[in-house]
Amino acid sequence: MIVTTTAKPSARALEQAGRLSAELSAALKTRGNLTVNKLMTLSRDKRLIVVTEEEVRYYDGQSDTPLYFHPSMAFVRVKRLRRGETDPLIQLSGCKEGDRIIDCTAGLASDSLVFSYAAGPTGAVTAIESEPVLCALVREGLAGYQTSLPDVNEAMRRIEMKCVHHMEYLTGLPDKSVDIVYFDPMFRQPINESSSMEPLRSIANMDALSGEVIEQAKRVARKSVVLKEHQASGEFARLGFERRHVNTSKIAYGVIQL
Q1: Is residue 163 within 8 Å of residue 203, measured between CB atoms?
Q2: Is the CB of residue 133 less than 8 Å from the CB of residue 24?
Q3: Which of 57, 142, 214, 256 is the most buried (most CB within 10 A)?
Q4: Cα–Cα distance, 154 to 48 (Å, whole number)
Q5: Backbone phi, then psi, for 216, in 5-degree steps?
Q6: How many beta carbons lie within 10 A of that of residue 200, not counting itself?
Q7: What are 2's strand-pairing partners?
Q8: Tens digit of each residue's pLDDT (9 = 90 or more) over 209-238
Q9: pLDDT class for 64, splitting at 50, 70, 90?
Q10: Phi, psi at residue 247, to the nearest 5°?
Q11: What pLDDT, in 10s, does the model give residues 79-137?
Q12: Which CATH superfamily is domain 73-257 in?
C-alpha cells in the first residue's frame, strides 16, 4: 500500500501522511504529477491512501470511487435528535445522557456518532474497529471533519477509536463496566448494491459474530446489548436477540435487555 498527498500539500497534510504511512507500514510516496491510477500501479496490492486538505481518501484498486469519512445519514439522525425527535437505535438501546457505550463494529462510525450525541459530554463512546486501514481512515475523519453545527463536531471528537478485535477488547473489561454494547456487523445480504460501498466491504471485517462474544457483551453491559441486521436475518435467533423491526426500513434491531 502507498500513502501520498495532493500535488501541493500543506505541512499539516505532509505530517498526517507520514504518520499514517508509519502506522500502516505503507510506503510514503511524493505525489508530484502522478495520477491516482499511476500510483496504484506502483503499489504491489493496488491500495492507495491520499491525504488531502479536507479528508483522507482510500482507493482499493478495484473501484474508481474512493472511501472517505462522512457522517452521511448519521448527520440527519443527529439533527432529528437536536429537534427533540427520537431515533430507533437510541430508543431501543435505552441510551441516556451520561451513558458509556461500546460500538464493537464501528465501520464508518455512523451509529457511534448518534450514540455520542445522545450520551452527551458526560457520556463516552468507544468505537472498536479491527481493520487497521478502516480504523485509521475513520479516526482521522472524526478528528477533522467539520459540519455547520459545533455540538455535532464535538460529538465526533468525543468518540474514541480503538484498533482491536471486539472479542479481545470485551474480555479485558470488568463486569457491568459500560451501559450499552452495540454490534453492527457487515450484513451477509447487502441491502444496497452501491459501488460507493464496495471499498468499505473490501477492507471491513466480514466475520460473523460468535455466541461467545455476545456472552462477553452481556457480562460487560449494564443496560442492553443491541444488534443491527437485515430484517430477514437469522442472526437474531441464532444469537439470542429479541428482534425489533423498524417501520419503513429493511433493517431491524435485536435487543437483549439486562
Answers
A1: no
A2: yes
A3: 142
A4: 29
A5: -65, -40
A6: 18
A7: 27, 48
A8: 999 999 999 999 999 999 999 888 899 999
A9: confident
A10: -55, 140
A11: 999 999 999 999 999 999 999 999 999 999 999 999 999 999 999 999 999 999 999 99
A12: Vaccinia Virus protein VP39 (3.40.50.150)
- Find the helix or strand (DSSP H, E) in which 257 lies: strand 251-257
Beta strands per DSSP E along 15-154 = 27-28, 48-51, 56-59, 100-103, 124-128
SS3 255: strand
CA distance 34 to 40: 10
Torsion angles phi and psi, residue 252, rounded to 5:
-145, 160
CB atoms < 10 A from the CB of 237, how many?
A: 11
The per-residue b/e assignment along 105-120, b for 16 or more CB within 10 angstroms, e otherwise, is bbbbbbbbbbbbbbbb
Q: Which residues contact 256 (CB under 8 A, 6 or more apart)?
A: 214, 218, 224, 225, 226, 240, 241, 242
Q: How far is CA 125 from CA 89, 147, 178, in A?
A: 14, 19, 10
226 contacts 183 by C-beta, under 8 angstroms: yes
pLDDT for res 191: 47
pLDDT confidence bin for 194, thresholds 50/70/90? very low
Domain limits, CATH 3.40.50.150, in the chain = 73-257
